[in-house]
Structures are given as C-alpha cells and as structure tokens.
C-alpha cells in the first residue's frame, strides 16, 4: 500500500497511510493541537519528538512492520490527497496481541473535529479494512476516554495485557 493511496473517504475528507519522515511535520502539528489529550494521558504536553515517537512506539512484542498509521485530511480544494490539513489519525498493529487480531492504538482528532462523528467513522473504516472477525485489544483507559468511539460492530474491547506500558 503506497502512502499516497486514498484508502477511504469520510465526507469530504480522505484517509491514507502516513509515512515516517515525510508526514512527521503534519503529525507533530496535530499532536501539538491535541495538547489536551497528552496532558490528560501523560500529564505533560506533547514532546518535540511526539510525531517520531508515534511512528516508532509500540508494544514490546509487536513487529514494527505490522504497524499502520492512517491520517485523515481535509479536502484541499484541488482534489489532491496531499494538500489538505491533517485533522486526525488512527494507529494499529496487525497480528497483535495474537495472530488474526488488530491492536487499535491511538485515535487522535484535532479539537475542531471532535464531536462530529469522525472518530467513529475512523474506527468503522479501520474495522472494515482489517477483515473480520476483528478482535481488538485497546490500551487501558480507552473506554474511559471515548467509549462512544469504540462502540462499533465488529470491535470487541478487552483489557490490555497488564498495565499500559506507557508507549
């Protein structure tokens, strides 16, 4: 799957795979705009390396090549995929914590985009693209943060193994 390829549309928004390096400046801007999320979960604002960390962090036994980070972009007006502003992202790992499962990591939305159904649409598209059945493990606390986003057909939320490792 090429990073430029549009995977799905949510209204006028497009989603595509984000690329380490090339997309890090956009991801960093999104992380900084979502300061409230970082302060709620980590107690600090996003670091200067938040975008790079997002592309590299994961559960200890997950394989880096199985990580997928999808970005959702506003339509730039010219129909291109690359031109719009990054307004959200979703992170997942194929084959973790067990073969056939997908680990749904982070769903991060720009504050201006919250409460409009975009998070739910992202999760639905993730589930549809992952090929059912889709057992999903989610980091501890996700149900507290956004239970309505995770309440989707095909998603079975179960506690993460042990304590959230803080990645």
Can you describe this structure in just a few lines?
This protein has 167 residues and is of the alpha/beta class.
Structural write-up:
The chain has one domain: Aminopeptidase (3-Layer(aba) Sandwich), CATH 3.40.630. α4 (118-129) links the parallel β5 and β6. The two termini are 26 Å apart. The protein has helices at residues 24-33, 35-42, 50-56, 118-129, 142-145, 147-150, and strands at residues 6-10, 13-17, 67-73, 86-94, 102-109, 135-138, 156-158. The chain has a seven-stranded mixed β-sheet with strand order 1-2-3-4-5-6-7, with helices on both faces. The chain is globular, with a radius of gyration of 15 Å. The chain has six helices and seven strands. The chain is α/β, with parallel strands linked by helices and 167 residues long.
What is the rounded Rg?
15 Å
Give the helix tally: 6
> How much helical structure, as a percent, in the residues?
25-40%
**Structural class of the helix and strand makeup?**
alpha/beta
* Quaternary form: single chain
CATH architecture assignment: 3-Layer(aba) Sandwich
**Number of structurally distinct domains:** 1
- Percent strand equals 15-25%
The CATH H-level homologous superfamily: Gcn5-related N-acetyltransferase (GNAT)
Lateral arrangement of strands in the main beta sheet? 1-2-3-4-5-6-7
Low-pLDDT windows of residues: 132-145, 159-167
Order of helices and strands: EEHHHEEEHEHHE
Q: Report the end-to-end length measured between terminal Cα atoms.
A: 26 Å
CATH class: Alpha Beta
CATH topology: Aminopeptidase
The total of beta strands comes to 7
Form type: globular
């Amino acid at each position: 799957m090429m990073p430029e390829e549009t995977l799905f549309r949510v209204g006028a928004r497009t989603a595509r795979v984000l690329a380490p390096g090339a997309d890090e400046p956009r991801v960093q801007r999104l992380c900084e705009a979502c300061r409230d999320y970082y302060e709620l979960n980590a107690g600090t604002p996003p670091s200067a390396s938040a975008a790079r960390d997002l592309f590299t962090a994961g559960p200890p036994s997950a394989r880096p090549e199985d990580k997928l980070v999808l970005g959702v972009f506003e339509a730039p007006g010219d129909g291109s995929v690359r031109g719009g502003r990054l307004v959200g992202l979703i992170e997942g790992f194929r084959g973790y914590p067990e073969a056939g499962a997908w680990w749904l990591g982070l769903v991060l939305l720009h504050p201006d985009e919250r409460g409009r159904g975009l998070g739910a649409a992202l999760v639905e598209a993730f589930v549809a693209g992952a090929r059912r059945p889709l057992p999903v493990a989610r980091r501890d606390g996700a149900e507290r943060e956004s239970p309505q986003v995770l309440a989707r057909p095909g998603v079975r939320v179960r506690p993460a193994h042990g304590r959230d490792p803080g990645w």
